[in-house]
């Protein structure tokens, strides 16, 4: 399953413990070995810390899936909980990016927004296209403005930052009080912005932050509007 | 990049000491000039042109031009009388990368790029632009470290950074200048050296989103008005595409004003919302969304391309990116207009859209005038008239198709 994940193995996967904790800390120093391939199991585990000693070919499927779930949860936490969202912290946390989380959030957002619409398939297609293409275009925009980003890392972050909008869409779909809807949408929009803007804004040279942040806000505001007017 | 030297990048300054270097005097002197130039961070267009700077740079490609022989003794004297000469020499060793940037990336006729290349990793500075008060709009080309984008292959995104090399203040200046372009037509000359595609792309994209959102909001206002006073459905009556049986159950599913929803059945689907704030549809008219994308992107791209080919036909001097830049920025005025057009007063919408169209058509006219007149003096009036007419056509189309909401 690794093509959808970042290929920097973190250190704690070197332990033989079956499942790392859901909210275990991301290792401060990422391993330098970029090779996703697992070594043969004959290598003793104590000899090195950089090379994971687990042999992922014959492990149970559930274990593989659980590892991805843990990665998604950890990335979600590091992106969305604005405790330490300095640029380096977030970038380091996203060093083992994955695209499963963004895929899930894009799908959920598109499904929620198109639920019960007259032409649901069109709404679904439009939302999904906007979100997926938007992440790609925004990342390219940052790179074109002179920022240095890891492409899939930025796509991963932009996808994870859809989570507040998913929350807003779900709440707006179930609540009909318009003040509550507006409040929830605003809060979720602010949450998504707080999670995204430092990462995007610090990736580009000084004096261009607004240019990089503006398209992100354009996309989020339009999605929030979609959520707000959802019946 | 004129005077492209040996492809391997022979750097006469690089590996050999100043003693063996036949152009050691140039070496030392260039470094000294750099040390002088870097500190004040002033582009050399305005700096007092150092006497040895440009010739030294030309001389870097091999044998110095013969007429520069007079410089030799002078600089050798400078080298030996100046007590800081060893410092310059060591500095020259340390600055190899900078000079390579200069030699490979800079152009000797482009003072901005060479001065920017001499100070990589420095904070963006704002040089005084030759255009005086219009400083911000054209300054983007020389702000920040400049790298040679042509070193990337064509499929690398970074190759096209050249067209996104603007700062926030540049974009703000360009947007504001596109509003008042009729009265101060210096957009073309300011952005001639550094056109960007950031503005055109995001102006068109913003317009697509804004017209959709504003159209949705305006239809909500309209629906509220008609919900308060139930009236026969206005204008878009038999749009026939919305199937009424689909609307009615959805509209009346959870809403008390069932009758209102039913009265709105025949209207546009946009306005046929159900209950309270909840608008049933957002981008209901999907063909409209696709059309708006086609219009905004297509206007910039196709009309710009046509104009470019026409100017090229007359053998005029015009870059395609400049055309896209101007056409893109001339659309920015429609962003506030499309927001203001939410107000449901028809004559106000007409006035706003027509004023915006006049302003941006004037912006196009004034900025293309010099170029087209120099390219084709005989046919210039015709071409300019075509530009203005095409733009007025765009304005009319927008009013009738989008801004009526």
TrEMBL record, chain A:
It is found in: Golgi apparatus membrane; Membrane. One of its GO terms (biological process) is endoplasmic reticulum to Golgi vesicle-mediated transport. The keyword Membrane applies. It holds the Pfam family Yip1. Signal peptide: none annotated. Residues 1-49 are annotated as: Disordered. Residues 26-36 have a biased composition (Low complexity). The keyword Transmembrane helix applies. GO terms for cellular component: Golgi membrane; trans-Golgi network. The chain crosses the membrane at residues 99-116, 123-144, 150-171, 183-204, 210-229. It comes from the Eukaryota. InterPro entries: Yip1/4-like (IPR045231), Yip1_dom (IPR006977). Residues 94-226 form the Yip1 domain. It is a multi-pass membrane protein. Keywords: Membrane, Transmembrane, Transmembrane helix. Belongs to the YIP1 family. This is Protein YIP. It comes from Gonium pectorale. The lineage of its organism: Eukaryota, Viridiplantae, Chlorophyta, core chlorophytes, Chlorophyceae.
Automatic annotation (TrEMBL), chain B:
Residues 231-247 have a biased composition (Pro residues). Keywords: Membrane, Transmembrane, Transmembrane helix. InterPro entries: Yip1_dom, Yip5/YIPF1/YIPF2. The keyword Membrane applies. Residues 97-110 have a biased composition (Basic and acidic residues). Pfam families: Yip1 (PF04893). The chain crosses the membrane at residues 201-221, 289-311, 323-345, 351-368, 380-402. One of its GO terms (molecular function) is small GTPase binding. GO terms for cellular component: Golgi apparatus; membrane. Residues 182-395 form the Yip1 domain. Belongs to the YIP1 family. PANTHER family: PROTEIN YIPF. This is Yip1 domain-containing protein. It comes from Gonium pectorale (Green alga). The lineage of its organism: Eukaryota, Viridiplantae, Chlorophyta, core chlorophytes, Chlorophyceae.
